[in-house]
Amino acid sequence: MKDNFSTQSADYAIYRPTYPQALYDYLFALVKNKETAWDCATGNGQVARVLAQHFNEVYATDISENQLKNALQLPNITYKLEPAEQISVENNSFDLITVAQAIHWFNFEAFYGEVKRTLKPDGLFAVIGYGLMVIDKKVDVAVHKLYEDILGKYWDNERRYIEEGYKTIPFPFEEIIAPHFQIKTTWNFKQLIGYLNTWSALQHYKKANERNPLEYMLTELKEAWGDDAEKDVHFPVLLRVGR
């Protein structure tokens, strides 16, 4: 599994969007017992902290020590520096397993073997993610220019799974057809730039060229943003659920 997010882990904790409560309510309604949950590739613990409000114990793993340092500490969350494909828990441990915006980096076969080993017989497995945001016509054009024209070759091949809405990942589970959800939030211009700086392709570009590509796009993005103090932002939620 690649670690593309350690270097910008602090920004990741600040600027990455959060999932809607309706998504969690849907998942929790499908879980029969709420004793233990595993949030795999937890990052800064965004999902784990929500799970901790509903489950007795939450096991949260990631391969990035810097990400875990930025995670919210709660008494019923155990953070572990462990890969998705091999964790140190017993068989049949979890009522719910979640992986948010990360499964495209995994060795699918090894990870799914670990999910099947550690999930309880009546447990639920949820793959969550989000696609490219939509703001308004002018800003979207500028963001797409950055995404495709400037950063196109710097995206990892695994990014295609996000672009395909996670519909093309292998999913060897009894699937439950889930409803559609959206992340709805409001950003100022600083938040837009903060979020763009968390993109893995942008970090790859910086390493290869020793400068931030946003330097070329800042004026164009600002002009597209205009005089609005804030704008509405929508992300499509990606979701695969199974047992």
From TrEMBL:
<dbReference type="Pfam" id="PF08241">
    <property type="entry name" value="Methyltransf_11"/>
</dbReference>
<dbReference type="InterPro" id="IPR051052">
    <property type="entry name" value="Diverse_substrate_MTase"/>
</dbReference>
<keyword id="KW-0489">Methyltransferase</keyword>
<comment type="similarity">
    <text>Belongs to the methyltransferase superfamily.</text>
</comment>
<dbReference type="InterPro" id="IPR029063">
    <property type="entry name" value="SAM-dependent_MTases_sf"/>
</dbReference>
<keyword id="KW-0808">Transferase</keyword>
<protein>
    <submittedName>
        <fullName>Methyltransferase domain-containing protein</fullName>
    </submittedName>
</protein>
<dbReference type="GO" id="GO:0008757">
    <property type="term" value="F:S-adenosylmethionine-dependent methyltransferase activity"/>
</dbReference>
<dbReference type="InterPro" id="IPR013216">
    <property type="entry name" value="Methyltransf_11"/>
</dbReference>
<dbReference type="GO" id="GO:0032259">
    <property type="term" value="P:methylation"/>
</dbReference>
<feature type="domain" description="Methyltransferase type 11">
    <location>
        <begin position="39"/>
        <end position="126"/>
    </location>
</feature>
